[in-house]
Amino acid sequence: MKALLISDLPRSTDDLQPLFSEYKFDLIHYRSPLKALDNIEEISPNIVLINTRDFPRHWKPITQHIRWDTSREEIPVILLTPSDFSADEADKAMFLGVQGIINLKENNNFNDDVLKELRMIFNRYNYNHIKNIEKSVQFLFTNPINETIITGTVKNLTENDIVFLPDMPANVGNLNAGMVLDQCSLKIEHNFIVPNCKIVSNDGVLNLKFVDLSGEDKKTITDFLN
């Protein structure tokens, strides 16, 4: 996995590298936001962090560029902000598709509080398991409206829900939040589960919640994740 850090602090990678290495990230650091923007497609990061103190005019166009063709679940965007980052700016950030705002102290260092918040975000997106999930978990279902078989990639999995990126998002464009998918197949390594899933949201990436999953099936998922 790749993490893109856009910050003018020369020691940024030194401070963050141990945490990112723990979560199996290759940390790529750009001190120029324009160069980062030029190369973002080639880098294809799994997560992006932008120091808004260093680049107060660039975080918005960079976020808009990322969100133009990727969802919040595909590439989380995290802002590292100064203490005077206003509530109005925070509202704009969330509207544009930012997932997290972490306040930097006056010395602009990545202290223990910053690392703790980053760890919480990584755990929220299950980054400690993401490689195993994409390699070891397969999911497909039948579109209940037109009977099309939908394949794709599992981006996140818990005992309660699943985040699924369809190979062809256009084939799920007619599915809305609240609908129940009752023809699903979930393969976890050598184990098969046949769950019913309720659509929580659909913005090209499907956020699904398992419906009445048995205790045995939950244990299969938990054993895999742990």
Account of the 3D structure:
With 226 residues, this protein is an alpha/beta fold. The chain has two domains: 2-125, Rossmann fold; 133-225, predicted glycosyltransferase like domains (Thrombin, subunit H). It has helices at residues 12-22, 33-43, 59-67, 87-96, 112-124, 130-136, 215-225; strands at residues 2-6, 26-30, 47-51, 77-81, 100-103, 137-142, 149-150, 152-157, 161-166, 180-181, 184-188, 191-193, 196-202, 206-211. Strand 11 (184-188) and strand 12 form a beta hairpin. It is globular. The two termini are 20 Å apart.
Concise account of the structure shown:
The chain is α/β, with parallel strands linked by helices and 226 residues long. It contains seven helices and 14 strands. The protein has two domains: 2-125, Response regulator (Rossmann fold); 133-225, predicted glycosyltransferase like domains (Thrombin, subunit H, Beta Barrel).
Instruction: Trace the largest sheet across and list its strands.
Output: 2-1-3-4-5
Mean pLDDT value: 88
**Proportion in helices:** 25-40%
What structural class do the secondary elements suggest?
alpha/beta
Largest beta-sheet details: 5 strands, parallel
Distance between the termini: 20 Å
Q: What is the strand tally? A: 14
